[in-house]
Fold each of these.
Amino acid sequence: MKTTLFQIDKLLQHHVSLPLYRQIYQRFIQAINQGILRPEQRVPSIRALSSELQVSRSTVESAYALLLNEGYLEARGQAGTIVSPRLADRVLQPPETLISSSIDVTSISLFDSASSIHPSPYQLGLPALDLFPRKLWNTLTVKQLRLQSRYMSYPQPAGYLPLREALAAYLQLSRGVSCSPQQIFITAGYRGALNLIAHTLIQPRDQVWLEDPCFPPSQHFLSQIGAEIIPVPVDQEGMNISVAQELAPNARFALVTPAHQSPLGVTLSMARRQMLLAWAEQNNAFVIEDDYDSEYQYDGRPHPALASLGSNNVLYIGTFSKVLTPTLRLAYLVVPPHLLTRFNAVCHTRQDGCPLLQQAVVTDFMQGGHFARHLHKMRTAYAQRRQIVIESLNQVFDSRLRFDIPAGGLHLLARLAHYEDDVALAQLAREHGLGITALSARRLSSDCGKGLLFSFANETTPENALKHAQLLQKCLPTTSRTSN
């Protein structure tokens, strides 16, 4: 029976950050799960498939190596490669999406998901897809796949040790966080890090200070585990610690984005950092530091991480989603030394970390010096893209909108008059193909005002930026005015 390839060639996306070999891998799993490819059915040879898809043989070889390692395919020598007969008795899991997201489906209407393979202009949550080093990534992946036996065993519960060693060195140099590799736990994305914290430390009804407005996945996660969320207003100095202490002085946790607050983009001031850490120490509480977008600072010097100032009460979370790609689903958690026993105990019972192959490739990427070069390239590109978007918006809107331009991060905020409906405007913008997000959709209880959030990460040329600004102008009523 000839394999039709389930039109896999039409589904490959050459412009997204997910490498082609991963796309082929996922399409095979999808076809197997849907019964399009059946156990013992022969699949095309590497040469035939690479020719039909017009991709390199190494790309198909990488995809097949993954499928063989994970038991989906079975090599039969001269007879070729077939779908594993053992799959007939196996409960298959659905394949991961092309651009995966840790966001609960109920939150999709509130903000831009990173799940679209065709990012809309201004869409939040994505890095520059055109800058992902696909060729190098494929090369490193093929290199690691040659060591196939390593990836057929269970990964270390806390994560691949060489990656944790590389991260410890990186955090020391870039964020001033002094930690041993043993303090670092590799997790499946940001939500995986929160999950590990929750299973180790958080009890139902524990009070958690949460920034208001906030990053929606954090709110949804805390609600799902039964924590009591204490919304704390955010101003130009970040979370208002004095108000938080009045609202819930005995809270057990504070979840903050101090580098660039999501979504307002402000930085937690040094005075408030010290207040927050003093509160945590005095109350035996914990600060969960989501070091959101800390890699990108355009004006002034970045503040040190909270974990570099008071590590005994800080749980530090970092991810690769904005530096590399969200499809990696790779994050890391740094815990204080006195909590290692508890976190290791939970880790050994969960086994839900990131695939070992991905960890090994990221390790190779970091140890080879590619990570530092890529980060420098991204910073330069984002500074340029930020500027062309600011110029295009100023050219089109003049004084009609007031723009908050954070010192870092990957998005801007346009302030609207209070009488305007930013949710309706964002919806209208979406209907015109723009990935705009409404600020008020991220509020919990405080009045953060009305505004529109939009990313500049994928605005590649002044011409496109101007075109998108003009399209946004058409979405706004002619009576729009700025608030004072």
Note: The longest strand covers residues 228-235.
Amino acid sequence: MGHENNDNPAQEQQRPISVRGQLEHILAHLPADELSQFVLETAVYDSAFRETFLITFSDLLSEGQREESRYQTRLHKILAQYTNKDGYISHKNAAGLIAAITSLLDTARKATTPTRESIDLSIAVLSIMPELGEKMDDSEEYLYTLMEQTCTVLLECFDALNPEAQQDCLERILGIYAEPAYLDLDLDSFLLVLLKDWARDDKMRQAACLRTQEAMLKGSEDDQWRKSYLIEQTNNLLAYWKSE
């Protein structure tokens, strides 16, 4: 596909030098059908471009519904690419896997990505953490880094939500926090930071957090260490909210 060159020196001088300027110049003059064809052809063969494109414009597909399950499916496909025949993710493959997931989270942090999609993707990433902890060689502590990045996206997005959406997000995180696997992997503290912050000025949210803590305590009566740990975390929550 070719385009005519213009040898007019005056027009040559007007063409932009910066990368952004060149992109803007091309987009301003490229016919829409050629741009569409380029996007389609590139997306078929370039998975990174495809994922970024789909996340950025996924609001055109979702019709206001949660996309967490779709993102989980996408993440499991990425996991499969880095998992060997024994179901294990080696040290070498772990680096590539985390880089791929981090790339998705970077897209979620872009201003052009709808907030709802950023949250759904982040919660989908949280949901696969137990599987990563079970399958992956994590001698480099990738899980902690990924958990921190994911929770950072959630923190950045939360204030942009309306009160109803905030409550929904809080309840979804409470559901994840209550799963024993996150405490077992020492990832619960990241989630607790979210809950502490989001419920700081809201008594009803604080009550919801405390109900979850109480339910977890009841489920840990046969595990003295877990019970003591949860009591300590509950006291930390109360002390933090009181100090604020």
Note: The mean pLDDT is 86.
Amino acid sequence: MQGQVAILTVTPAAEHRWLEAELTDGTGALTLIWMGRHRIAGVTPGRSLRVTGLISERGGRRVMFNPGYELLP
């Protein structure tokens, strides 16, 4: 999937820290969760990404855990 990072959030819990991003493509949204991370260079709001991985459902949302990603210009 390819889209733009709309929202970027860090969950600061010491034992469960993760970086969460909402990726939108004009047709819907996908929540990306990188477990154990609090920052990824280049992944910022407004940045375009191409992501790969398994899409699952969590709390009624489409979610991809620890996706592979490519920063797009």
Note: DSSP finds no helices and seven strands in the chain.
